[in-house]
Amino acid sequence: MSPIQMVDLKKQYLNIKDQVDAAVLGVLDSSMFIGGPQVNTFAAKLSSYLDVKHTIPCANGTDALQIAMMALGLQPGDEVITPSFTYIATTEVMALLRLQPVFVDVDKRTFCIDPEAIRKAITPKTKAIVPVHLYGHAAPMEEILAIATEHNLFVIEDNAQAIGGDYYFNDGTVKKTGSISTIGCTSFFPSKNLGCYGDGGAMFTNDDSLAELLKMIANHGQKKRYYHEIIGCNSRLDALQAAVLNIKLPLLDQYIDARRKAADYYDNGFTGHTKITTPFRAATCKHVFHQYTLILEDIDRDGLHAFLAEQGIPSMIYYPVPAHRQKMFDAFGGSNYNLPVTDWLTERVISLPIHTELEEEQQAFIVNKVLEFINR
Predict the structure, then answer these.
(1) Domain closes at, from 249, 266, 290
(2) How far, in Å, CA of 289 to CA of 306, rounded?
């Protein structure tokens, strides 16, 4: 059995090595490193895949969120409702822009933001909601959009962990996550389901004027070179990364299917074990399993984490400290929040290896070792 990786990027690369190498060498040969046909082609292909009018590439997923909030005209002191149970980038950009993050709890089953918690958190200062499609499971977007419409709020999807996911509306409409709200944002960090070989990100919108504004902000606030109409930043997807993404985008659905197959194997392996809750799949969405995350009851989670490491099995705890308990948010009143579900989850979740090249032999070993620890 080969060594187990949390995400095996080397094996994935070797499977597409010839195409990737040729694409990268093509960029080097052209010497068009910023912008150019590779970036434009990728943006067009991703728009087609997501069925969204505009894809605006940028340097990373964090920038995507920040630029989205800038484009919507959010001002210091404006309140933005978001889950605390997420990677710090979601909320970090709010602090950078001096917005007021309003942390709310999540659904214990899906790990995603709770619509009822959103309703209770709305005040006259609320301007936006930032749901996170955590671990690859879509947030309850139909309810969120209804709340946003009722209160005239923007919705920014943090789709960094769920690109390629499907969301099903009650009327039968199906949309890709990231294409549902005012602006969708994603990351192409190497370990993502659609990852490049460095940093990268993108924003999505169906609003023509908003798309133009997003492009301007990402490019120093200019439409015409050297004529800077608004305050912007420097956030561009480089051509080398776009070349890699152009190879991987047609494989995204195949990659997702491989992750789902691996998730099903884990599910079957843990069936009947009352101390383990396997990932929930709501009928409203199709999970893409960026992570495979268990909830453990009456089990030493940190002990299991250490035991698996001793067996050569990587595992991760996403996330041991929620955003509202991070020191960086002390000045924003983070310690004043009472989020019992979030706190409960941070003490019980653990994520197992899942990726496109995961072998059944490896999964069998992982399942057996998890059960060995639990049953001893």
Answers:
(1) 249
(2) 23
Among 344, 296, 337, 342, smallest CA distance to 322 is for: 342
Whether the predicted pLDDT of 376 surpasses 90: no
Give me the number of domains the chain comprises. 2
Q: Are 135 and 20 within one domain? A: yes
Q: Are residues 335 and 193 in the same domain?
A: no
Token output for 86: 């997420």
In one-letter notation, the amino acid at residue 333 is: G
Residue 2 lies in a domain: no
Instruction: Assess whether 243 and 269 both reside in one domain.
Output: no
Number of Cβ within 10 Å of residue 303's Cβ equals: 10
* Strand duo 166-168 + 285-286: pairing: antiparallel
**93 and 196, same structural domain?**
yes
Helix residue spans in the chain (DSSP H): 9-15, 17-30, 37-50, 61-71, 89-96, 115-121, 141-151, 208-218, 239-248, 252-270, 301-310, 340-346, 360-375
Q: Are residues 126 and 243 in the same domain?
A: yes
**Tens-place pLDDT, residues 37-87:** 999 999 999 999 999 999 999 999 999 999 999 999 999 999 999 999 999
Of 249, 264, 298, at which residue does a domain stop?
249
DSSP letters, 249-277, are GGGHHHHHHHHHHHHHHHHHHHTT-TTEE
Is the domain of 157 the same as that of 301?
Answer: no
Reading phi first (left if > 0) and then psi (alpha if -120 to 50, else beta), residue 100 is in: beta
Residues near 293 by beta carbon (within 8 Å), at least 6 away in sequence: 111, 135, 279, 318, 349, 350, 351, 352
Tokens found for residue 158: 């943090």
Query: Cα Rg for the chain, rounded, in angstroms?
Result: 21
In a domain, 3, yes or no: no
Decide: 254 and 188 in contact? Cβ < 8 Å.
no
Question: Per residue in 276-317, pLDDT tens?
Answer: 999 999 999 999 999 999 999 999 999 999 999 999 999 999
Distance spanning both ends of the chain, measured CA to CA: 25
Residue 151 CB neighbours (<10 A)? 15
Q: Are residues 238 and 268 in the same domain?
A: no
Claim to verify: residue 131 and residue 218 sit in the same structural domain: yes
If you average pLDDT over every residue of the chain, what do you get? 97
Q: Which domain holds residue 351?
A: 251-375
| Euclidean distance between CA atoms 294 and 299, whole angstroms | 12
